[in-house]
TrEMBL record:
This is Smr domain-containing protein. Residues 592-682 form the Smr domain. It comes from Rhynchospora tenuis. PPR repeats lie at residues 166-200, 201-235, 271-305, 306-340, 341-375, 376-410, 413-447. GO terms for molecular function: mRNA binding; rRNA primary transcript binding. Keywords: Repeat, Transit peptide.
């Protein structure tokens, strides 16, 4: 451990050599005020009266099939704010700092915290010094979060208060059980309800059905839905919305579509919840086009999407990998006056970060802060990872510095440090990366395989082979299990390492993966036979996971060309095509013939160009016509860790061999030419002009 601790201090007493500091400090003030007791709105006053018909909360304020939204506000009774009576009531409530609403919500909180027993709950309720009305009982249970104690409170209220309609009290208790997904208790309470002689209503069934659906029990939901008619209860549009999802999950897709079509055909059933259910169903089944079609149909029928519907669709398009549609939907939502919530921002930011829409992601980040919606550490980490991907050093520093000032839950964790270290590594700022690595250790975070991978890449760019060796020492001493990606990182370092230090890197590879290390030695041995090299290459590809075969092949071809092993590079390229490691490289149609090199390394792209040129020459030798347009798609990004773009490299090489390709201004990342120009070029060129070296 001595060698490791000398360069990778595990305590604050040891410092990195040549530590530097580069940081940008920002001050961000984000205030999010949360009130335990909300005052009644002046146009929607909470009035406590004895008629339970008017005070009962219902589930019909929000669709039971949509959950991607903020909690709905508590129910209230609308009254005319211009009437004399309502003004007097508002003024009276405002003069009572310890008003009835505060006392009742406080009572609900006390019941939640009580010992979970009927005796304890009864003692609290019996000790109240003010009379509790039927409407008060409904409000207390509706504000409770402990389902067991809510049932105990229900029983006490039924014993001590005369109710005009007991079903309302049972309904809010069913809601409490639904929130906690307590299905056995729901069925037990149902039995109690029937024994008490209380007749259930449609809200009772809707609540129970949505509970079964949330508990992932579609068969139970169907059972209760079919039971409604025997009690003379007519399904509401909210019930139908929940049942669309239940039937689909139970494998009765035809029944689900039948309910959906019924909702579409009846004006009183045109409810966003039904459309939301279908969007959710199609999204979960991976049919994202159908989800979009439902959304468009919804608008065409005059149903305005609400926030939960937009959230469902945004998440659907994010999972589909369609960030452009996420952006379109979000813009439409804002233009329609729908205010996003925390969930909306989180989905959109994740989608933008993954797609590297960095301007949009950072704009939403600022918008979210301005709205007083704090980010959690996961969302911050997405932003930091995006900054690393696109090389936004300053922005990453500002975000990381802001995180340090936030409460626990948003402060940097090991992933945050990993991301900011990667930012510095990608930009070749070794001292800053070392400083953050030491800070991470001082904060008590154990290095992860991802952090160590970034440090190796950083030292590889700086050509500090001895530091790469020390990272390997640390990884092995900490007993961190390296994976194929980590070994691929070492291969990437090897192709950029000077010849005099290459042996050190190969020894590191050998310690991590003996099969890859042995292959590297065969590759660099001038006496290796072609057949032996080919067999060892097959053995290597068989030994690694599919996800790293292409990166491995990219690096190995580059190393072959670096050491002028052109024949070995061609063997690797042919094997990669044979084993479908490289696939769909050429697309030949009647009007165009495209070479697709996006995702290849510079060396692999040159080998693909060589093979493509041979194929074009063969077609001409046979006297066949070429398509009128020939092109090369390179993409327009650049490789991570400071390499120049593939497009710029290919342009340079095509210029060297007088190839008649030119950039397409309207198609970024494309190089195009004509059949006539290619024919002249091929006929006048010799194959010796295409000897490549990287």
């Amino acid at each position: 451990m001595a060698a490791t601790s000398q360069f990778f201090p595990l305590s604050s007493s040891l410092q990195w050599k040549n530590r530097g500091t580069t940081s940008v400090t920002t001050t961000t003030s984000s205030i999010n005020l949360q009130f335990k007791h909300k005052r009644p709105n002046i146009c929607s006053l909470q009035v406590f009266i004895s008629d339970p018909q008017t005070t009962a909360p219902t589930d019909e304020q929000s669709s039971p099939s949509i959950t991607a939204s903020e909690p709905a506000p508590r129910f209230s009774i609308w009254i005319n704010p211009n009437s004399k009576k309502s003004k007097e009531a508002i003024l009276a409530q405002a003069k009572l700092p310890d008003g009835r609403l505060v006392r009742l919500t406080g009572l609900a909180s006390s019941l939640d915290k009580s010992e979970p027993s009927e005796q304890a709950v009864s003692a609290i309720l019996s000790a109240q010094t003010f009379p509790i009305s039927e409407a008060d009982a409904v409000l207390v249970i509706d504000n409770m979060t402990c389902p067991g104690n809510a049932v105990f409170a229900l029983r006490w209220f039924l014993r001590n208060i005369q109710f005009n309609k007991k079903a309302i009290l049972y309904n809010v208790t069913f809601k409490a059980l639904r929130k906690a997904k307590k299905w056995p208790q729901v069925e037990s309470l149902w039995d109690e309800m029937l024994k008490s002689g209380t007749k259930p209503d449609s809200i009772t069934f809707t609540t129970i059905i949505s509970c079964a659906r949330q508990c992932d029990m579609p068969d139970k939901a169907i059972e209760w839905f079919e039971k409604m008619l025997s009690f003379g209860c007519k399904p509401s549009r909210f019930t139908s919305s929940a049942m669309i999802t239940a039937y689909w999950h139970a494998g009765q897709s035809e029944k689900a579509l039948e309910l959906y079509n019924q909702a579409r055909s009846k004006k009183d059933q045109l409810f966003e919840g039904a459309f939301g259910s279908m969007i959710s169903i199609y999204s979960k089944s991976g049919n994202f086009d159908a989800a979009m079609n439902v959304f468009e149909e919804m608008k065409a029928l005059g149903v305005h999407p609400n926030l939960p519907t937009y959230n469902l669709l945004l998440n659907s398009m994010h999972k589909a990998g369609r960030p452009w549609q996420v952006k379109t939907i979000y813009t439409e939502m804002r233009n329609n006056g729908v205010v996003p919530n925390r969930y909306t921002y989180a989905v959109a930011i994740r989608a933008y970060c993954k797609a590297r829409y960095w301007r949009d992601a950072l704009a939403l980040y600022q918008e979210m802060k301005a709205a007083g919606l704090g980010l959690d550490v996961i969302l911050y980490n997405h932003l930091l990872a995006m900054c690393a991907d696109v090389g936004l050093v300053k922005e990453a520093e500002e975000i990381f510095d802001e995180m340090k000032k936030l409460p626990v839950g948003s402060r940097p964790d090991s992933w945050s440090y990993s991301a900011i270290i990667t930012v510095y590594c990608c930009s070749g700022q070794v001292l800053q990366a070392e400083q953050l690595f030491s800070e991470m250790l001082d904060a008590g975070f154990k290095p992860t395989i991802y952090v160590l991978t970034s440090m190796i890449q950083c030292y590889g760019i700086a050509k500090q082979a001895d530091d790469v060796v020390r990272v390997i020492d640390m990884l092995l001493e900490l007993q961190i299990e390296p994976d194929d990606r980590f070994c691929g990182c070492l291969l990437h370092v090897a192709k950029n390492t000077p010849s005099e230090d290459l042996g050190k890197i190969i020894n590191c590879i050998d310690r991590i993966n003996p099969i890859v290390g042995s292959f590297m030695k065969v590759l660099l041995d001038e006496n290796t036979l072609v057949q032996v090299f080919q067999e060892r290459a097959k053995e290597l590809f068989d030994s690694v996971s599919d996800v790293v075969k292409k990166p491995y092949c990219n690096c190995l071809i580059d190393i072959c060309l670096k050491f002028e092993r052109t024949e070995w590079a061609r063997v690797l390229f042919d094997l990669a095509v044979e084993f479908q490691i490289y696939y769909n490289l050429q697309e030949r149609q009647e009007k165009e013939w495209i070479l697709q090199v996006k995702g290849l390394s510079c060396g692999a792209a040159l080998m693909a160009l060589h093979a493509w040129r041979d194929d074009v020459a063969e077609v001409l030798q046979k006297g066949e016509d070429l398509p009128p347009v020939l092109g090369i798609q390179t993409g327009h990004g650049k490789h991570v860790y400071g390499e120049k773009s593939l497009a710029s490299m290919l342009k340079e090489r095509l210029l060297e061999i007088n190839a008649p390709f030119h950039e397409a201004p309207e198609k970024l990342g494309w190089l195009l030419t004509t059949d006539v120009a290619v024919k002249v070029w091929i006929e006048g060129a010799q194959k010796s002009e295409l000897m490549f070296a990287v």
